[in-house]
Amino acid sequence: MSNLAEVSVPSSALDSLAAVYKASGDPLRLEILRVLQRETFGVLELSQIFEMRQSGMSHHLKVLSKAGLVEPQREGNAIFYRRPLQPAEDSLESLAIQQLFATIDQTPLQPHRASAIDAIRRQRSEQSRAFFARYVDEFREHQELIAEFERYAEPTAQLIRSRVDGQFEHALEIGPGEGAFLPTLSRLAQRVVAVDNSDDMLARAQSRCEDEGLGNVELVAGETDAVLARNEQFDLIVANMVMHHVPSPADIFVDAAALLEDDGLLVISDLCSHDQNWVKANCGDLWLGFEPEELSAWAQDAGLAIGETLFIGLRNGFQIQVREFWKLSNTRTNVQTNPQPTLNH
């Protein structure tokens, strides 16, 4: 009889594996993990979704966090929770977590949970709309405390120009604000749709279009669901410094994947994660930037391929990431996935 090679598994790995199974051995905690599939919520928001006291929710989050099933994310003075980004190593623990997430994600959200999540998104969206309505006259001045428009607009435009021979047919800009990027898009695409949930910003964008004679630009009030309802497809979608204002950033990728044609391009410029909490009060930010790995994970979950990444460092401590994502057809596989070097300005 041949001898079978014995594989030794460190006891520490088994301890970690046991912690994962113990923490997930509760139906409520499994449902919390399901709710956090693409979302990031604070303790109070999760308490609202699950109609339970904050102390009880904090206990469950502590158990899940200790087992590595959720991780805290500081947003100024508040702590939010998300599922961890996909780990690079193939340890027993990480493989078990990945399998657990894949299994629970096949379970549909209960209708009353989905309604509670929608209510929180509406609260966040209203918070953003109220800010822009109140500070529409000062917004540009406040925004440029973070980064002047040209710092991210020109690298974004250069990236887009390098990806098309001639013009795109149909482009969408999510959150055009006052419309500063619309003249560029108007030249890059035959038709442009721009959607924004702020009536005040749309009015300013309309004035810019009229002043500069941008006859191929159509402005739409609302959010991406308003564009989805039109059943249109785009070969280019752009979101400049928008995601840190939206209630559910991961949904940008899901909606973009639905709106893009095959081989369509999504370009996002946004802040890298930072700790400058003053931007919430002064610029209406809901989120303090994003880790590049976060955007990559959301894109891959939405079925988008990751293209190039450009980092722009600013003297005031902020860093901007310009990201490229593709909705690939079966025949296209030549996407560049190596990031470009960091640029310091």
Automatic annotation (TrEMBL):
<dbReference type="InterPro" id="IPR029063">
    <property type="entry name" value="SAM-dependent_MTases_sf"/>
</dbReference>
<protein>
    <submittedName>
        <fullName>Methyltransferase domain-containing protein</fullName>
    </submittedName>
</protein>
<dbReference type="GO" id="GO:0032259">
    <property type="term" value="P:methylation"/>
</dbReference>
<keyword id="KW-0808">Transferase</keyword>
<dbReference type="GO" id="GO:0008757">
    <property type="term" value="F:S-adenosylmethionine-dependent methyltransferase activity"/>
</dbReference>
<feature type="domain" description="HTH arsR-type">
    <location>
        <begin position="9"/>
        <end position="103"/>
    </location>
</feature>
<dbReference type="Pfam" id="PF08241">
    <property type="entry name" value="Methyltransf_11"/>
</dbReference>
<dbReference type="InterPro" id="IPR001845">
    <property type="entry name" value="HTH_ArsR_DNA-bd_dom"/>
</dbReference>
<dbReference type="GO" id="GO:0003700">
    <property type="term" value="F:DNA-binding transcription factor activity"/>
</dbReference>
<dbReference type="InterPro" id="IPR013216">
    <property type="entry name" value="Methyltransf_11"/>
</dbReference>
<dbReference type="InterPro" id="IPR036388">
    <property type="entry name" value="WH-like_DNA-bd_sf"/>
</dbReference>
<dbReference type="InterPro" id="IPR036390">
    <property type="entry name" value="WH_DNA-bd_sf"/>
</dbReference>
<dbReference type="Pfam" id="PF12840">
    <property type="entry name" value="HTH_20"/>
</dbReference>
<dbReference type="InterPro" id="IPR011991">
    <property type="entry name" value="ArsR-like_HTH"/>
</dbReference>
<keyword id="KW-0489">Methyltransferase</keyword>
